[in-house]
């Protein structure tokens, strides 16, 4: 089953007299187990596309299917439930709660999904272990480096066992070495744990970790291809 399908998707922003076609006639399918980078210069439509892939926004024209269901036919509350179970989000700025420890931050989405306490604790601990932070469970964000904070946010995105991890410029706030470490974690989650990952980046070096490149220019998909360099990361 295709995880996400865009069928002739347009996103048009109307600002007074001015109309911006942020996405034009985009057709893509994302399957389980893919590691995709969405690449393109500033203003090419990457964020717009991420918001649509994450079902945080709706298209102006065309259809988006999440697990074969047209999101246009779903109520906001059904969509929100399906999104919570299906997609984990990673942001450039981590979005961790400063007053909470690493463990508490990762427990949060499990509590929202009303997972039983002991199972939640098990899942959160496991997720933090996967990103190599077993020894930082009780550190608050301010007691962690930027790279470690991003690893906590990746652990949080993993907590509810999502089918898709959506990462928007996950290394944008990190220096290049730490950025590569974080990309290495995403790469292993894909390669070893079979996670489906879609990330946005404007950094071609970091895009090399991904096995598929979707390149946007002026709101159009100008390339959609396998990246053979991905396997060089082993
Ligand atoms: P990228 O993430 O690649 O930088 P965006 O998706 O943010 O590109 O933007 C694509 C185009 O849509 C740009 O021309 C941008 O100015 C425009 N745009 C994005 N969001 C909005 C908005 N909320 N209102 C109006 N125009 C927008
Ligand atoms: P990196 O080299 O990964 O960016 P840092 O140099 O920022 O990491 O931090 C090195 C170590 O110091 C990390 O293990 C981190 O947990 C710890 N550390 C960083 N900042 C603090 C802090 N404010 N309080 C306690 N420990 C910290």
From TrEMBL:
Pfam family, one: ABC_tran
Occurrences of domain ABC transporter (ranges): 4-234
Signal sequence, renumbered to the chain: none
InterPro entries: AAA+_ATPase, ABC_transporter-like_ATP-bd, ABC_transporter-like_CS, ABC_transpr_LolD-like, MacB-like_ATP-bd, P-loop_NTPase
Gene3D superfamilies: P-loop containing nucleotide triphosphate hydrolases (3.40.50.300)
Keyword DNA damage recorded: no
Highest taxon listed in the record's lineage: Archaea
MF annotations from Gene Ontology: ATP binding; ATP hydrolysis activity; transmembrane transporter activity
Keyword presence, Nucleotide-binding: yes
GO CC annotation: membrane protein complex; plasma membrane
PROSITE patterns linked: ABC_TRANSPORTER_1 (PS00211), ABC_TRANSPORTER_2 (PS50893)
Keywords of this entry: ATP-binding, Nucleotide-binding, Transport
PANTHER family in the record: ABC TRANSPORTER ABCH.1, IMPORT ATP-BINDING PROTEIN
Protein name in the entry: ABC transporter, ATPase subunit
Origin species: Methanococcoides burtonii (strain DSM 6242 / NBRC 107633 / OCM 468 / ACE-M)
